[in-house]
Amino acid sequence: MKILLIMLLLFLQFFSFCTFAFSCVETENCYALVINNSHYPDLEEGGYLQNTERDGPGMKKILRNKGFYVKNVQDVSLKRFEQEVDNFVDKVPSDTPIALVYFSGHGLTSNKERYYIPSNFKRSNETNNNLFSLKNLVEKLTPIKAKSTILIVDACSNKPVESSDGKKTSVKSASGIFFRKGTAKDGLIIPEYPPNFVSLFATRPTDVALDSFPTVVHDDKELDDGTVLHDDTDVQHCVSKEMKVQYSVYTSQLINFINQERLPFGQLVSDVSKKVIEMTEEYLACVKKELIKHGKETSLEPPQSAWVEGNLGNLSNFYFSPPEPNQRNGF
């Protein structure tokens, strides 16, 4: 009886996979828009994101290998950002299993709402009119008739940081770890997601996302006369071989797990998050130890932790990398 029960369970598992599991490798009818902004001429801090520049091409390559039609645009203005999203919505056919939009670049939270920053952002503009809001992005993508829509954002979600001249800027940490500047207030605006829509974020609301693991910690102090004292700490030894990533920290792990076979979408989301937390915890523990050794402030940002909003339901049987047909018997 026990043997028959085991055989029945294995059959049901196999039947379930063969009947319901799907991937874009098999359908070759999935669409993706990949946007990465790495050059911000008007930002004095974080004006160039080295790894983010590679995020877009990296995501384009992996998604094409997984059966997506992909368009990658880089360093877009606000107008171009809106145009590309609108064109993508119009292009996606109604029988598409997956429509995916990816953004990597600077982001911030202001007045309880999350925004993404175009390359032509001007610090002199003190309103949010030259930013692209998450709420607006979700609203624009909602009409897509795909079975499921996936939005992936690898950007900061913290409050703007004031630079030495008083202008507010956002920092996707590229060249140094930044000390806490305070978090956004409670009551963050969450978009109204349709049932088939899920958003994946590289970091929690109000936190930073790493472009890379910095080898230097910056602790700048402004004196009463306006003079800024720069006090840097070398933490190069805290960056292990595994941490020397080619892409932004979150995107590097996303690409890594997309390549793994037999990984359902929900498990992929969980595994990426766990790995990012593990790496950043290890790094920050080493940095903190180094700062204590030098008698410096240790109130660093918390470990980077991914965030999910929307609905994963329709994607429970979606695989970026399904097992090869001849390997599915024992799945």
Strand order of the largest sheet: 2-1-3-7-10-15
Q: What radius of gyration results from the CA coordinates? A: 21 Å
Largest beta-sheet details: 6 strands, mixed
> Which percent range describes the beta-strand content?
15-25%
Total beta-strand segments? 15
By CATH reckoning, the class would read Alpha Beta
- Kindly state the percentage of residues in helix: 25-40%
| Overall shape | globular
Q: What structural class results from the helix and strand content?
A: alpha/beta
- Helix run count: 7
Cα(first) to Cα(last) distance is 22 Å
Q: How would you characterize this protein structure?
A:
There is one protein chain. This protein has 331 residues and is of the alpha/beta class. The chain has one domain (20-214, 248-281, 303-330): Rossmann fold. 30% of the residues lie in helices and 18% in strands. The protein has helices spanning 2-20, 24-27, 50-65, 78-91, 134-141, 249-258, 265-293, and strands at 30-36, 68-74, 98-104, 107-110, 113-116, 132-133, 148-154, 161-162, 168-169, 197-201, 216-218, 221-222, 228-229, 232-234, 307-310. Helix 3 (50-65) links the parallel strand 1 and strand 2 (68-74). It is globular, with a radius of gyration of 21 Å.
